[in-house]
Every structure is written in C-alpha cells, then in structure tokens.
Amino acid sequence: MGSREQENKPQSTDFSGQAVATRDAYGAALLELGKRNEKVVVLDADLSGSTKTAKFAKTFPHRFFNMGIAEQDMVGTAGGLSLTGLIPFASTFAVFETGRAWEQVRQTLCYSDLNVKLAATHAGVTVGEDGASHQALEDIALMRVIPNMTVIVPSDGFETKQVVDAVAEYEHPVYVRLGRAKVPAVMPPDYKFRIGKAHTFNTGKDVNIVAAGIMVSEALKARDILQKEGIDTGVINMVTIKPLDTDALLEAARNSKLIVTAEEHSITGGLGGAVAEYLSEAHPVPIRRIGTRDVFGCSGAPDELLRLFGLTAEEIVKTVKNFFQGHSEGLSANKLAAQ
CB atoms < 10 A from the CB of 127, how many? Predict the structure, then answer.
C-alpha cells in the first residue's frame, strides 16, 4: 500500500476561545511538550500529516518513528520504548488504533500497565466523506473495557492542550480520542483539566446533560434553548470517560429529574453506557442517551452526518421535551413551553 500522508499546516498553541480541530491542537501541543520534555517520543502509522504529528517529526526526527501501516507493531514498539523510561505517544486513526491493535493494547500495554499514550484522531462521524470504514463509533467502548486504561475525550482545542500535558505526567496507559473537524471553543479561560474530573458548567433542577467531545457544544446550545422554554437545564463535560467522575454525576442525578447523555459514539458501551451502568446501581434515575444506535456511519459532510444521526442540540431538546410531556407537573418552572 502507498503512503497515507497529507500536507501538514502550521499550528498555534493558543487555543483559548478558538474554534480548532482537536487533532490540530494535539499536534501543536505535542510539539511544545517535546521541547520541554526530552523523554517524549512519538510513533505514527504512516498518517502523521493527518494526525498532526508531522511537525514533531520535523523538529525532532530522532524522537519520531514512522512505523508504516502496521498499527499492531506500533503499539508493541511503544510499549517497549516505555520500558526504557521514555514517554511514547502513538497516533493513528481511532478505528485502527483501537480496532486493529486491540490485542496489543490489551496484552502489551494494559496488562503490564505501561506508560504509553494512545492519541487517536478521526473519531466519530465527523470524519466525513471517508465513510463508515474510517468512522470509529465503537472505540470508547473498546478502550474503557480494558483494565488499567484511562479514556479521555476533550471537547475543544484549549482542553486538548491541557490533556496532552496532563497525560504526559500520568504513568499509565491512556487513550485520548480526537476529531478531524473544527469544534467551537467551549471551555472557560480559567479552566484546569484534571484526569478523572468532569467540568460542571451548571446544574439543572429539571435535567442535566452529560456530554463529551464535540457534543459538549451541542449540549450547551440545547441548554440555552431549554432554559428559554422553562426547563431548568444543566451541562456537564464528562471529559474523562474512565474513570468516570461519579461525584459530579451523582450530584446531578440527585438534584434533577432526568439525565441525558450525548456523545459522537455508539450509545452501547460509550459515555451513555458508562453513565447508565453507574447510576442504575448508585442512584436510579430516568436516563436518555443521544448517540449512534447500533449502526455504522456513512459518507457525507460532517454537519450533514451529525443531523442524520441525531447528534445535534435540536435532538437533545426534542428528547428532553418528549420526556417532560408526561411529567410537566414535576418541572421547576411554572409550565412547560408549548410543544
């Protein structure tokens, strides 16, 4: 097979308030990290132009390894490098890193609890025209089921930069899920990322939307619409899917009547699955899950695919209002807006 390289463009590390693809933020943050920490090495599976590791490769050629189209070998090699005291970041498309190399991730990295960072790009349907074969909708489920694996899904470029810095200091396997398309800036300028901690924008008395990745911006849009219609709505950015911030989740469940999860991933085994699993035992509460429903993706423009699969603020609003149609007497507001 031939090279899968794409042209790499210059990037900035000032992401606060900027709409940027999380893969671009990753590439720029990785370069800055490499300047500060000589133990950081990067591996890629012949996709460094797309994963945005090419700039690191150009600046630190002796610390970059193009493993070719051999994802399993890349993961195994990353594990070996970690045993020498290095901090490997291994990147390719999410569908290949979590699918093709799953056995190596389980047996080599997680079983031995090795200090390797899997930073996978092109997750979700916003991969776009590349179609179903390249749209990972199962990757969170595949990674969070493995013991010793931490799963992180940043929502914007600003958060992604902080995630890269944090996982470099965390001496365990980590999976960081990144996207191809630009996403709006959503995190406040004073935000500080911590592994295992969610960010609660606000807590709603009627419903709380627990979102991750690109769906955080959609959740915030939905909140604003619902608030105007008399439904008190909160939003939580559950950036770390594993370990789940159960304290934040439990507080939201105890103080509202409905939990809605929103993710650019299958509702089976992803954020929705994790939330439902925990709350079913800790504090049963009505839950509605927004995500893909046991289907593959398809080719199309990213915005069109988000609408096709119901990954929008409008779908969140519809889901919440449908629930409260039969429970309007329980709303904190005086009345439910006209349906």
Answer: 26
pLDDT per residue as tens digits for the range 23-49: 999 999 999 999 999 999 999 999 999
Give the contacts of 3 (CB within 8 A, at least 6 positions apart).
46
**Vertex 142 angle, CA 104 and 250, to 5°:** 135
Helix ranges, the chain (H): 22-36, 48-51, 54-59, 71-82, 94-95, 102-104, 139-144, 157-168, 215-228, 246-254, 271-282, 302-308, 313-324
Strands 150-152 and 20-21 turn out to be unpaired
Name the burial class of residue 118, with classes exposed (0-12), middle (13-18) and buried (19+) by CB atoms within 10 angstroms of its CB: buried
Q: Which domains does the chain have, with CATH numbers?
A: 20-183 (3.40.50.970), 199-328 (3.40.50.920)
pTM, entire model:
0.92
For 233, residues 6+ apart whose C-beta sits below 8 A from its C-beta are: 204, 206, 207, 208, 209, 222, 223, 226, 227, 320
Is the pLDDT at 153 greater than 90, yes or no? yes
Determine contact, residues 162/193, Cβ cutoff 8 Å. Answer: yes
Catalytic one among 5, 7, 71, 138?
Answer: 71
Which phi and psi (to 5°) does residue 6 adopt? -130, 160
71 among known catalytic residues: yes
